[in-house]
Amino acid sequence: MSSADQPIVLGFETSCDETGVGIVRGTELLADAVATSVNEHARFGGVVPEVASRAHLEAMVPTVHRALETAGLKLGDIDAVAVTAGPGLAGALLVGVAAAKAYALALGKPIFGVNHLAAHVCVDQLEHGKLPQPAMALLVSGGHSSLLLVPDVATDVRPLGGTIDDAAGEAFDKVARVLGLGFPGGPHIDRAAREGGDPDAIAFPRGLTGPRDAPFDFSFSGLKTAVARWVEAKQRAGEPVPVADVAASFQEAVVDVLTRKALRACKENGVDHLLIGGGVAANSRLRTMAVERAEAVGVRVRVPRPGLCTDNGAMVAALGAELVAAGVEPSRLDLPADSSMLITDVTA
Amino acid sequence: MLLLAFDTATPAVTVALRGDEGVLAEHTEVDARRHGELLAPGIEKVLAAAGCSRTDLTGVAVGVGPGPFTGLRVGLMTARALGDALDIPVHGVCTLDIVAAAVAADGAFAVATDARRREVYWAAYDVTGRREGEPAVDRPAEVADRLTGLGVAGQGSRLYPEQFPRALDPELPSAAVLAELTARLLREDPERLLPPEPLYLRRPDAVEPGARKAVTQA
Ligand SMILES: [Zn+2]
């Protein structure tokens, strides 16, 4: 059923609040089962690590079986196990790593502890085929905002820049809260903006875009504060807050900076493929603006479908399969969960 | 039978293998911060030491706490996944009962383990070694008032010698004891075995946000 270059890999992802179990054969997606505890976190306005960790333990075995059923496989068909070793929430990672080790040990198969960010990059292979190398990757979510140069997703991933304060998705969450919209903020802001919001209504600041600023780093904290100040001024003046305009203008500021920097990185590194991943990649304005601006400079944009952009097990399995095919050494059974794993380490 | 037993609800990562005749191998390491790293290799070590294969296993016994959450979950996740992948039953045992089963006391006693935040997980046991009531988490002084001079096994008595002056052995649970206890319960009283559900005894630390604070000073 499988072969050396088309290994069947079972992937585990528990770095945040999604319990993801995916199965791939080479670059073919066979199953992507996700259980989420997002509703348990909503009333706290953010992910509560202990709540997420408890939910991972309860969801794991049933999610494995949902994935196996979808793929029409048995555990005995699995050739290798892959798991997010980091970065992420320490206690949450630990549950996935423990599960992956136990399955690998019980099945007598190799285990690959992998980097969550590299997995976000690799997942696109399941949808759009082999990633052209080198590629540029813009990863934006509630937990990360990174610009990566990817000469080889199995062995060589280089960070060009990242956020110096809030992750992009976090800014969406906080602004959604200011506007009285729900958690997580991304989809709510996106929807509000599309309901007649004018992206040019308010000129919100673009962080770190001055001539002396780090060209590939991001900052969203100042923007978030500027939005809050603007809304509060309206409220104090007793005027209605134009929610759609604020959402659209905030979103425009985020998306403008993300796409501008990503394309500059492509140009400076002579890269003509830009991959966008992470939960914020589901944002409709980000997708549209990235494609428009990229086309203008001859860069092809690749964005996996929304379900593969958010955290999932298939992305981990995809990277695991890539590592098997590349002949990378498996991890040892004492591999640690590393909450601050560096992106330069694709495997643990 | 070939029973794999382990407990990760205290600083000890303890693993043992028991065959029909008794315990075949035990491996214990004490490192409160490395449960996730030590457990799977520990399982491989006891299998290798006993010359057994993972596919020979007929059951898993796991300590279900109470214990600090991250370590406890490593044990439970491992037990559940092994049970699932090998299609064998997983039996839970209260970690305090594992400590209690190794106490050689000539009367009633108690077990107290470290719950961090200056509290202990604890339970009292009668003269036959049977637990009285459910395990609880409390401050050492409150527990000491309830125990009135009983000997106390477990790390709690080492951490709080003023409250628990009569320290009993053992300090930490042993998987060999867990394996023996589970084998006996399977034989004599299987109803007393627990499902592999964690005994957290505490709610997650999480505070619902109040009204949002303005960033501008009014
Ligand atoms: Zn992610």
Automatic annotation (TrEMBL), chain A:
First-level EC class: transferase
InterPro entries noted in UniProt: ATPase_NBD, Gcp-like_dom, KAE1/TsaD, Peptidase_M22_CS, TsaD
Known cofactor(s): Fe(2+)
Annotated Gene Ontology cellular component terms: cytoplasm
Subcellular location, record wording: Cytoplasm
GO BP, one annotated term: tRNA threonylcarbamoyladenosine modification
Residues covered by the Gcp-like domain: 28-317
Molecular function in Gene Ontology: iron ion binding; tRNA N(6)-L-threonylcarbamoyladenine synthase activity
E.C. no: 2.3.1.234
Main location as per UniProt: cytoplasm
Positions that bind substrate: 139-143, 173, 186, 190, 283
UniProt keyword list: Acyltransferase, Cytoplasm, Iron, Metal-binding, Transferase, tRNA processing
Catalytic activity: L-threonylcarbamoyladenylate + adenosine(37) in tRNA = N(6)-L-threonylcarbamoyladenosine(37) in tRNA + AMP + H(+)
HAMAP family: TsaD
Function: Required for the formation of a threonylcarbamoyl group on adenosine at position 37 (t(6)A37) in tRNAs that read codons beginning with adenine. Is involved in the transfer of the threonylcarbamoyl moiety of threonylcarbamoyl-AMP (TC-AMP) to the N6 group of A37, together with TsaE and TsaB. TsaD likely plays a direct catalytic role in this reaction.
Protein name: tRNA N6-adenosine threonylcarbamoyltransferase
Originating species: Actinospica acidithermotolerans
TrEMBL record, chain B:
The keyword Acyltransferase appears for this protein: yes
Assigned GO CC terms: cytosol
Top EC category: transferase
Alphabetized CDD domains for the sequence: ASKHA_NBD_TsaB (cd24032)
Protein EC: 2.3.1.234
An annotated Gene Ontology molecular function: tRNA N(6)-L-threonylcarbamoyladenine synthase activity
Domain Gcp-like: residue ranges: 29-145
Keywords: Acyltransferase, Transferase
Record GO biological process: tRNA threonylcarbamoyladenosine modification
SUPFAM superfamilies given in the database record: Actin-like ATPase domain
Pfam families, per the entry: TsaD
NCBIfam families to which the protein is assigned, alphabetical: T6A_YeaZ
PANTHER family: TRNA N6-ADENOSINE THREONYLCARBAMOYLTRANSFERASE, TRNA THREONYLCARBAMOYLADENOSINE BIOSYNTHESIS PROTEIN TSAB
Protein name according to UniProt: tRNA (Adenosine(37)-N6)-threonylcarbamoyltransferase complex dimerization subunit type 1 TsaB
Organism: Actinospica acidithermotolerans
Gene from which the chain derives: tsaB
